[in-house]
Amino acid sequence: MDWVMSIQYKCSPFFTFEQYLMSDKGLLSIPQDVIDNAIDQADILSIVQADVKLKKSGRDYVGLCPFHKERSPSFSVSPEKQFYYCFGCGAGGNALEFMKDFHNRSFISVIQELADQARIDLTPYLMSAQNDRRTMNLLPALQAACTLFQDSLSDITPNPKVEFAWQYLMGRQVTQELIDRFAIGYAGYGPKILGELADHHIALMEAGVFGEKDHGPFSMFRNRIILPIRDIKGKTVALTGRALDPEDAPKYLNSKETPSFNKTNLLYGFYESLKAFGPHSLEEIFVVEGQFDVIAHHMIDLPSAGALGSSISIQQLRLLRRHTSHVTFVFDGDKAGLKALISTCILLLESLTDNDVTFDMVILEAGDDPHQLITTDPDAYRARLENRQPWLDALLDNLENSPHLQTQDGRMAYANEAIELIQQTRDPLLRYQALEKVAEKTGFPVKLLDEKLEAMPLPRSGHAKVKPTPTKSLNEASIRLTRMVWDNPSLSKQISEPQLWIDQGDELVALLGTWSQQHQAGELDASLTPEEEEKLEQPGDWSRHVAIKRRHRGGAAALGRMLKELPPQYMEQLMRDEPESLETTAISLCWHITGICARKLMQELSRKAGLGIMTAEERMNFSQLVVINRTAMNRSKAIDT
């Protein structure tokens, strides 16, 4: 029914993901349906399961939430909806949002990965704006710089600076094979670098390879050994330069973080180790502190990787867990090394929920480092690695109060220190194992330690949101219907009066009305997938089949996106139960909601009639509402509302 009355929408226009990106960073101009298409073709279950242990529960999968600390599962993944949600902290979203938030990655890097997997070419969209072109040009520019620096090192033209670079590498026993494996290069002095990379000045300034002064760009990397940082696929995403002149500071200079490079997400040498020792996974890898320490391990045929900061991050830990079954961390024996060991062990304590990966620790003597030990006595270094220690033992042996276990006060201080850490553990078996070890060291009963731990409040994670307070005003019928149409968007055709829902419904009902109008008009249809394009080229009339799939896919994605803009208590209610399956139930729910909206407007018009200000047009609308209300009451009797 077309309403003649000019009633304004009571809900604000929905702010789409694309609009958010444009307003926040101005980086992207990818159409929403293309984004939705890439997300829809991703398998959210396999993406989440790569990092979170899940168990099947009905149609969904549940596990411990990776975004906040908890001891009982409240995290749910719905493969049908391609959506995850945590009832504990309110975290929720699609595959793209999980990859962004869990791995601390930029939007552009994730959408490019999903698009590549779905065989969707984003180039026409990413090249449409100046900032987009800069982002797209970063990786080619960094690769061009990397190639130039490699060529500079291998240049046979006599050059004292290059010869000194070779002498430095040979002095550290870096062979030509390792130079090639790690794509090591040499950066000379500025003018030649600027000239050779003239086509990439803007991108390299953005990446921090070039700087800028009043007279123009200049090379940040001069007279340095260049160590490229590559991602898991082998793309050069950043550069490190090691100074050859002791007077140059800093000793190690890194290029900037960019949309393609976040130092907490990558490990130096990890790609090279995968390529050399295991194309898909490694049996064991050694994590060290310095980049030349990584290279040194390759000298003795040991896969290795290095953190790009002072300590390992949760994202780097997740990267390791996905690709290996045994990780051994090697730390220097100085204060900084012990601090890094404690930090890494606490991270393991907080994040481990299974024993799929073994973690060990090696602490070297103060003043020693892996590169020096490997190049002087590799057999002695290997023997030191054999004396590795399980990570939990290493943590408990190196707590601040460990030296004071001989006294009663010292044992109490040690127990309190340990329990404060152990309470952050997510795995109950690991928690009990840790308490047993503390009991052995202190002589206190495990039961007593456990009682003290249980009495302590569970610390909140920085990821956790304030849990929404449930509201009693949520319309149960609209919640039930939303579950059904999200699962089966074709049911939107049962919403016969969407404008009435928009004008008279609460925020969820108004959203359903808006979504239904757009869905039925085809405004939310997903883009064609490569498989669908191939289908349409085959003999036979596939157009209707493809159109139905596009409408279903686009409708479900759009509804999920719109629902996320509502207050979080709606999502908590929607994800709590599985959708009902009978279409007759959906029809009854639609008419029940339509009746509520009709009666609400009838009351408004009745008040106008009582005041004698009802227009002829409004009287006609009232008559139509009477018919709608009567139909709604008849068609909704079958449901329990």
Q: Could you explain the architecture of this structure?
A:
- This protein has 641 residues and is an alpha+beta fold.
- The chain has four domains: 31-126, DNA Primase, Chain A, CATH 3.90.580.10; 130-254, DNA primase DNAg catalytic core, N-terminal domain (Alpha-Beta Complex); 267-455, Dna Topoisomerase Vi A Subunit, Chain: A, domain 2; 476-635.
- It has 29 helices and 17 strands.
- The strands form four sheets. A six-stranded mixed β-sheet has the order 12-14-13-15-16-17. Strands 1-2-3-4-5 form a five-stranded antiparallel β-sheet, with helices on both faces. It has a four-stranded antiparallel β-sheet with strand order 6-9-10-11, with helices on both faces.
- α13 (291-299) links the parallel β13 (285-288) and β14.
- The radius of gyration is 31 Å and the shape is globular.
- Residues 1-27 and 461-473 have low confidence and may be disordered.
